[in-house]
Amino acid sequence: MDTKKQPLFIAFSSQKGGVGKSTFTALLASILHYRIGYNIAVFDADFPQHSLMKMKTRDLAMVMENQHLKKLAYKQFSTINKKAYPIMQHKAENILEAAHEFSNTSAVPIDVIFFDLPGTVNTPGILKALAGMHHIFTPITADRLVLESTLVFTQLLQDVIMKKGETSLKSIYLFWNQVDGRESTLLYDIYNDLIDQLGLHVMETQIKNSTRFRKEGEENTKSVFRSTLLPADESLLKACRLDLFIIEFLKIIKL
């Protein structure tokens, strides 16, 4: 009998592009792997963008060209005594089987596998892949079209997939991203009431809007935000409340 500990399968998933699912995948994977000490792996199935595969290539070049980041990376990997987490490109239709195979054959026990999945239900195998997750986190913004699309998608997951029982899903959580401090808190209260009436869950922590989510890193920068090789700078995390988000995230997944 196989008694090897099985990893948690987690996806930041959305039917809308540009809301931050690839960014959050990289942010959480890097913090958990490099700073907190868990063993992480990532599967990139977001065809055709494959944002995380491209991010890894960019990050390697950036670290090699920036002397400060090169020293940071050397110190980090010498201290934690483990390699960068793997990012593997794969199609959505048989990604669960690939992830289980990877976990079972890995020399290092994997705690969490993050999945960056396509943003459309028309992708072959996407519903099966989502049903195979343990936890799904979905970023939302205070945009009516984004919100309506996301709520329909999330209700589909909860009412069709979770309630049928043929799933590994333990939780689905929405969370507010790109929150502008100038926007009315009343607006978010109204939206939260609507989400609650639909029987859906929203995280307490709201992520503040920040240009760091869109910056790829300046040539001579001495700090990083989203990177597959280094965890985000702690001061940058606090500035957009991601430090609080990570605490709440870990409580939800019970890692």
UniProtKB/TrEMBL annotation:
Family annotation (CDD domains): ParAB_family (cd02042)
Q: What is the official name of this protein in its record?
A: ParA family protein
**Which residue ranges run through the membrane?**
none
Can you name the source organism? Chryseobacterium muglaense
- Top-rank taxon: Bacteria
Q: Where is the CobQ/CobB/MinD/ParA nucleotide binding domain?
A: 10-220
